[in-house]
Every structure is written in C-alpha cells, then in structure tokens.
Amino acid sequence: MPVISYDAIPYEGTAVEASHPRRLAAIGRLFGLDAPPVASARILEFGSAIGENLNAIAAGLPGAACIGIDNAPRQVEFARKVAADLGLQNVRFDLRDILEVGPELGTFDYIIAHGVYSWVEAPVRDRLLRLCRELLAPNGIAFVSYNCYPGWFLRQPLRELMVFATRNLDAPPDRLVAHARAMAEIVVRTSLDLEARLPGGPLYARVLARELDFIADRPDDYVAHEHLEPTNTPVFFADFVAHAAGAGLQYLGDAWPLRMALPDLAPGIAREFATLARGHIEREQLLDFVHGRTFRESLLCSKGIQLVRPPHPDALRGLSLRLLGDFIGPGEERFDPALPKLAHPGGILALRDPDLLEAVRYLADRRPAAVPAEELAAAVDPRRFWERTAPKLLRLFFHGGLQLEVEPASPVSRPGPQPRAFAMARHQAARDGTMPVALTHAVHEVPPLPLALLPYLDGTRDHDQLARLIVEELAPAARDDAVRAAGVSFATARVALAAALQWLARHGYLEA
C-alpha cells in the first residue's frame, strides 16, 4: 500500500493536554510516588512531530530542559522554527530515529511518547519501552499513548476499507486521503441503504457510519496517519501493562482519571462487577470492555517503586485542584430540581452534601486558577475538611470533575488594562490554528472573535486600541459574521471585546 510520509503530510496535532508534567507529577504523588519537581525538570518527548506539545510545555516552564525526538525532517524543521520565533532557549529538537537513541541523552524526569507506540513496528515498540526504563530518573514518570481494544475492533472495518481503497493508487498524498474518504462514504451509504431495505440487514452499517462521522471533521493529517498508516496496532490494556513490565516498568495510572474509575452503577450491578476483577489491572481492563475504549494514555514508572492503592485523601496535601465543570440550572430530570448540580466531563453531579458544595463553589469562584488543597481547606471548614470533604473531592477527581496539579500555572481570572495571552497560543492563532493551547495546557475550540484577537494580545495594547483594531482591521477582513458584527462601531467593538477577553480569561489563556 502507498506510504504517506510525515514530510508529505506532517502531523499537525496541537498540545496533548494530559501529557503535561504538572499533571503527571500530581497523579504520581497521589499514588505515593515522590515525582520530581516540575519547574526544573528534564523532559523528553519521543515523536515530537511539529513541536506543538513540547514547545507549549517549554514556554510555560522556562526553567525546564526539553528535548524532542522525531525522524521526519520537515516536522523537526517546523518545531525548531516555532521555538526560535518564541525565543525559547530551553528546548531543542533532534532529527533521530528511536532505534538510534541511547544513554548519551542522559536521564529525564518525564518522558512523553504520544502517538508512537501503536504506529510503529514491534522492534520499535520494544525499544521505546526499554528507553523509557533506561532514560527515566529513579522517580520519573513516562506517558505513553496507544490505540486499544476492544473499541478498535469497531473502528478497524472503516480503516481496512480505506486501506483497501487506496492499495494500488499511485497519487499524491492529499489525493490518497481524498479518495479514501470518498470511497468510504459511498460504501457506508450503500450499507445503510441495504440495512434499511432488508430485515436483519448489516447492522454493522451503523458502526461504519458512526466512524465515518467521527473522521468527517478530522483534518487530513489525522486520517492519513491514523486510517492510512501501514502500521496501526491496537492492544489490550492488560497486554500493554505486561509489555511494560517486561521492560522493567510498572503501570502507575491513566492520565485521565475517568479511565481508572468505576462509573456510577446501580448498587446490585456495582457489587456484581466488583466480584469479577482480581486487582486494579484486571478491573481497568474490564472497564475498557464496559466502555468500548479505543485509546489510552498510560503512565509508567520504575517497577521497584512501592505505590499506594487506593490513594488516601491525605495524598491531596501539597496538590492543587482545578474545577472542570459548570453549575447548571433546573431541568435535569434525574435529580431533584432544587439541588445545585455540576456538569463535568464525567457526567452530572447533584451536590447534596453541603461541605462538598461549599468546596466546589470556592473552586468555581477561583477559576481558571488551580487552588492548593491547604488553601481550600482553610477557606471552607478546616476542622472537617480532611476527614469529610477530601474523600468526596478525591472521588470527584476520579469521576472527571477535578484536575490535580503540582506547581500549577497561574492564568488570570480577568483581563488587565493591557491584556496578554500565553505566547504559544498567540503564535498558534496567528497561524490560523483554531484550537490553540491555554496556559493550563488545555486545548479549546476558541470562538471566532477571541481567536482573531489572540495574536494581538501581547501586553502592548489597551482596551481602546484593541476595540479600534476590531473596527479597522479584524472586522473588514473577517469571513465570520460575528467578527464582522463586532466591528460595526466602536461601541459594539468595546462590548464584544469585553466578552471575548472574559472568554479567554475563563479558559486560561490570559496571564499577568
């Protein structure tokens, strides 16, 4: 089959939110691992691509030393240029193959390998994990992402269809992707039509259709390097853990706590499920079957470290908590309408407990900042916090409502007289990146006006100058109706500017 090189179509993914050392260290400490300090850490990224992830980390951690490894010259050149544009002195990108890397690089506190493990041949996978062990500092943490079963069993038919459709096609890379998309659409439409016409027709047409919908909004670089890669080898989570153990590593946890937690279930079902699993590895593998997971971001550490499972609420000491949800009003039928409710990535939580409600409200008032646990304890009820509230907050973390960090970033909650945005986000927005990275390393789809403003928020313009910029430059050149409407007059521009800046502040893009 044709091979689409990363030089022909670079992988242009943005920052990998869960890979930031602030988060890795927090999960490590939660499970009893005294992870290295983040501000002065040595950080290595395998498969650094165009550098969006590592450059963002380096920009936010000027005291850290960062090295990116990639074997695609075009990607390395781009990453180096962005680092130079940002004036970063603490990051470098090496053009090397993973099989060529050795101990000469030294040891690292944090190692990141996003989008590598499943997309390379077996010898490279073996070498990747051995390098994680050989180059990792004694208390270091490695982040390794990979496609996983059982969810990928449902995704593979569309991938195999696209590979088959392009197997003998001699065409430029962009044409290969376009042809694969078109062929997949025709086959899926045909299968759906057959299912509708024939009782007991091919029910898997809906599976194909869902996957086709999933990739419809994904860029060509994603499709090229996910669905048209010669090597794309999903694995079961338990098999990955065994592979890591063979390299001298142990599973620490998942970068997203939701993947480790038992979801809210009916009491009888929860008891039955609890009897199935012998240990946390088997439980998480069974949960992958429950959820049909397609992707994991596993954290690894040295096999000799004694971890604490399950974590004790006292482990929150020294960590900072960032709220990941929003209060919602009445209308959710599953809960008493009178109860305050928090909608977060893991679902909806009815806040019946007054202590937990007080803590969540405090965290909501401090967003987008992360709040040290000791500060939160002092602000609510320090006499009862560690005994009563901390266990509930730990549960909320594992269900997706909180993020834990060490040495957290400090975005401002409201724009200053001369607003300044995170330099990496400004650079990405100036390149027409629609999902720039925030100071918190989170990635958001930024609305049109805040996105148009980002490149100009360098701390040199006041609000009047920014409003005039909207009227005189941004609105006349805009293709988006909202941006054009914002520039109708200076008055409308001031109102729209205030809303845009507040959006950026709330989502962690603005710094002091």
Count of helices? 19
Q: Roughly how many Å is the radius of gyration?
A: 24 Å
Distance between the termini: 52 Å
Largest sheet: 8 strands, mixed
Query: Could you give the count of β-strands?
Result: 16
Helical residues, percent:
40-55%
Strand proportion, as a percent range, falls in 15-25%
What's the shape?
globular
**Class of secondary structure makeup:** alpha/beta
The low-confidence parts are none
Please tell me the overall pLDDT: 93
Structure, briefly:
The protein is of the alpha/beta class and 512 residues long. Helices cover 43% and strands 15% of the residues. The strands form 4 sheets. Strands 1, 2, 3, 4, 5, 6, 7 and 8 form an 8-stranded mixed β-sheet that branches. The chain has a 3-stranded antiparallel β-sheet with strand order 13-9-14. A 3-stranded antiparallel β-sheet has the order 10-11-12, with no helix packed on it.
